[in-house]
Amino acid sequence: MKAAEMFDVCHGRYRNLREWLAESSSSIRSVNLKTPSPGYQWRPDRARACEYIANFERIGRHALRRPEWKGRLKLFEIYFLGSFEYKTAIRLVGVAEGTFDYWYREVKRALGAEFSRTGLFPPSVYFAAVRGEQGNARGNGDVPHPMDYPVGNTAK
Fold first, then answer.
1. Can you tell me the distance from the alpha carbon of 49 to that of 51, in angstroms, rounded to the nearest whole number?
2. Is residue 148 part of a domain?
């Protein structure tokens, strides 16, 4: 699987979990007993879902922290984390459409590879892992856990 496809899988899970957490916070759903249930839908526990969201954001920012990639980091935060529409994101990033598209592909490639390296991809393995056994669940005990990344911008 290509790095950009890995990013798409992780980003899809990120968006779905953010939406699920936003919808499930302090809301009560009504049930229509006349329509059949859509069936069982697996969801991780809230703490693990929040951890995945935080790791996605932290790993993404960490991988794009190079000073020469400042615009790509801005693209990541506006388009992928902020979920702005394409044209609005181009305007907010402040670059031409061709540059935005090029950076978009670069961000997906760089972060897909980083998510795979750190164990965020595949999400099924990430969520199956028990906190104390994550190195074994990934099959590679020497890969750093996403929580090992420093918080904040450490670029000099």
1. 5
2. no
